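Morning run. Coffee first, then this:
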Amino acid sequence: MTKQEIKNAVTQQIINMLENDILNENGGESFVGWLEDGEVFRLNGMNEYETAVAMCLAKSINEEVTSMVFNIEHFGE
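And here it is:
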């Protein structure tokens, strides 16, 4: 799997999280929590190395993604 494919997989999980937590009103959670310690990547066919790279990227943006979800969820309260 290329680095671009790993970036795409992480980006798709951001989209999935936004859809679940905001559009479907299922409440917020941390991005890393959403990824279940990389289980979501393994279930989608990534090997251990690819999962580790994806989780490295996810952890580096966790604060921003999590903050965005909670800010959208609680907007106007």
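The helical segments are 3-23, 31-34, 39-43, 48-73. Good start to the day.
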